[in-house]
Structures are given as C-alpha cells and as structure tokens.
Amino acid sequence: MERVRIGPISRRSVDGWDRVVADVAGEPLWYESNDVVLDDGPEAFASATLLAAALGGQGLDIAEPVSREWVDNVERLLSTAAEWWDVPVVVPEGPTIEEPRPRAAGVALCFTGGVDSFHSLLCVQPKADVLAFVHGYDIDLSDQPRMAAWEQDFRHTADAVGAEPVLLRSNLRAHQVHAGRHWPIVHGGALAAVGHLLADRAGTLLISSGAPASYQVKWGSHEQLDPLWSSDRVQVVHEGGSHSRLAKVRAIVDSPLVQQGLRVCWENRSATGNCSRCDKCVLTMVLVAIAGPPDRVEVFDWTRSLADLVADVPQTRFLRTYAEVLQEDIDADLARAVRSLLQRTDPIDQSTSRWRRIVDRVRR
Fold this sequence. Notes:
Shape: globular
Order of helices and strands: EEEHEEHEEHEHEHEEHHHHHHH
Strand order of the largest sheet: 4-1-2-3-9-8-7-10-11
Helix content: 25-40%
Structural class: alpha/beta
Distance between the termini: 50 Å
Largest sheet: 9 strands, mixed
Strand content: 15-25%
Radius of gyration: 21 Å
Oligomer: single chain
Number of helices: 12
C-alpha cells in the first residue's frame, strides 16, 4: 500500500513567526506562531494527516522518531475509524521513542469562541493555562479582516481569564493530503496536532465536544477517538460530551465574556462576527433566548423575531437540538417555525434509528 512520508522536519523564522515545517508527501506542511516556540516533533504532523491519508487509502511513513505510546494509541483509533468510515487500518511506520518523556504541567484548550469551547473554558477544572487557535482551520488564511477581528476578542478573553493566548497559522487545509477530504472526519487529528505543537507548555490538551455523546454522531472529534491522539508527553481529553448544547448555553450565558465575544457563525455571511442568519447562528440565538433575556448577548442581531429567522433557514444540521427545543416553554409562533424546519429537513444523514423515531414523532 502506498504511504505518505512525513519528514524531514525543520524550523525557520518567517517574518518573525517561528515556523516548523515537515515535508509531507513531497510538499511542505507548516505551522507557525509568533507567541511561542512550537515543538518540532513528528506527532503533530502525523496526527494532522493520519485520517486524511487513510481516507485516501494510504498509511504514514514517519521519518523521525515518534512516541511509541502515540503509535499504539492510533492503531486503536484506526480500528474504530475502519468500523465507522471503512478506512484501512495501516499502522504508521518509522523509528519510535520507547522511553516516556517529561510531561509539562499546563493545560491547553483549543478555543474558537463558540458555545462548546466557552463551556470548557468557564466550567471545567482545572482551568486552561493556554488558549490556542489555528488561523487556517475555521478561518481561511486569506481572510485577514475576519481574523483580525477574532484575534482581538481571542486575546481579550485569554487576558480576562489569566490564560496565555497562542495564535498559530497553518496551511494544513490547503495541503494536498487534506485537499478534498471530509473536514468533519479529519478535524479531530488536526485539533490534536495543536497539543503536540504546544507540548513544551502544556501536557494536557482539551478538545471540546461538538455534540452530546448521547447523539452518537461519528465525527472526527469524538469521546472514543480524541484520547487516542495522546502521546507520552501530551494527554488529549475530550471535554463536555455529557452536556446538551442548551445546558452549555445556560451554564455560560451570564458571563460578560460570552455576551460580548461568543462566535458561532460558520457560513461567514458577514465580513466579521456572527451573521445572525445562518443555521448555527439562528439555533444559538434560539437557545440564548430560552436561557434568558436574549439581547444581553450583544453579538447577535435581535431586530427580527426568532420565528422569522427560523423560517428563513432552508434546512438544519441540528435536528436533535431543535427537537429538544420543542420540549421547552417557547411561544407558539417559534414552535410552529421549528416544527416546519424539522419537516423540511431531510434526516437521512442522521446516524441512529432512535433519532429517526424522534423525527417521525415530531413530524406527526
């Protein structure tokens, strides 16, 4: 079977940014930061590319010594991935580091400013010492206005909670190994890479759950997968899967940091901030309104009724959460709009027969 070779890995300075670069399949893959010196071990690059390579029917050939604990863990991870997504179980090859290395005491959190990462930041103990964000993942490298606006909020939040802000940049999503791969599957390894890059500062990386464990959504970041990106130096923790999205909103909505800095928009219809019109914005606005007076959360446009906003969403990816919304004390117009949204949304991509029964019950 063809393998994607990782290495050699080098370090250089680019316009004042510390950059670590790996030759991956003959093309440079890089991460850089001007906040910290990044670790140049292969675990970061291997984590970022393992599932993307597997989706292409390829394994990894790692040129530089990699943690034996990491190799053993990802063999188990690939076995689960094979069951979920029918990818080959091809264990990475290359020299290994057998003896455990020291683990730093700090805790890092992948922080995007969304409901999930704010919940991890404000509600989890021990508190994160480091907040990390990668420009090039959710925000395209070319989108400087959006990144500039987010960076200001990012650094403000870190300062407010006494954490160290670490902004990274990467070309991962433009790299040939990742091009065309399904981001919802491969993003877990990309997030885990952040922890390995920050190994000198934090021995624990928190990755916030994107959906409650009860939903049984087989995403690339999952309670069964995230811990298996761990190495001898970095423990990766999947955080928050026992909470519904509404429970998370209720837990964080009183924080001024959330009220002034929550960032959930993924369609980027506006130049910066939340568009207050896309599927994820509208759902979050509904949850905020259930949790209390909505306009205290200043990052959304509340000039239109929630019922009208829901009515304008063509289909939703949040069928389960909207089904839970219908169990709350909401006004009749909003309830009708939510039911109509559920009725016009095709549930074929939902993963369990239990959920299909919920949808059928709501539709009746």
